[in-house]
Amino acid sequence: MSNQGNDGELQAVDLDLEWVYLMMSAKKAGLKVDEIRQFLSQKTLQVM
């Protein structure tokens, strides 16, 4: 039996890694983490 999980789990991990990369890139660009979180929260609420 594989311990890789199903495709949905793998996609979620890929997505998590993408968000980590984006957050690190934004931080390197000089954005504060709180500003990034607020922006993402607002976008998430708009999508819902």
From TrEMBL:
<protein>
    <recommendedName>
        <fullName>Sin domain-containing protein</fullName>
    </recommendedName>
</protein>
<dbReference type="Pfam" id="PF08671">
    <property type="entry name" value="SinI"/>
</dbReference>
<dbReference type="InterPro" id="IPR036281">
    <property type="entry name" value="SinR/SinI_dimer_dom_sf"/>
</dbReference>
<feature type="domain" description="Sin">
    <location>
        <begin position="6"/>
        <end position="44"/>
    </location>
</feature>
<dbReference type="InterPro" id="IPR010981">
    <property type="entry name" value="SinR/SinI_dimer_dom"/>
</dbReference>
